[in-house]
Amino acid sequence: MFILPAVIVAGWVLSWWGARRVRWFLPFAAVVVSVLCVVIGWHAMGPPADPRTVDCSSSWACTDPGSLYVVAAGLLGFGCCVVLLLLTLVGEALLIRRGCRSEPVQPDTASMRPASAAASRSRPGPGRPPGSVM
Asked: 124 in a domain, yes or no?
């Protein structure tokens, strides 16, 4: 019952080392798988049995527990996906906000010239009058 949510969480954690598309595709794919688990498990239960016609004390006692585990796994997986999608939204917003703050400022190119280039401009070379610039 806990295998599907565990696989979803493990895949989500590993997806943060992948591309951004993987980070968003994985939870949505997991939602589809979770909903399919609920639908398949619900249909596998079959029609409800009448406890009076079958030798059961209640209708829950007449239900196959294997299909209930599939439904429970799908519901837990869906809940995990909703939580992980919200965490992904928050994480992406923090990454974008941090990325905007750390954009490099364009440096002043004049202050980055080597000293030898600045000195060579101030000295007149052969055939140049003093004070001329290259």
From this structure: no
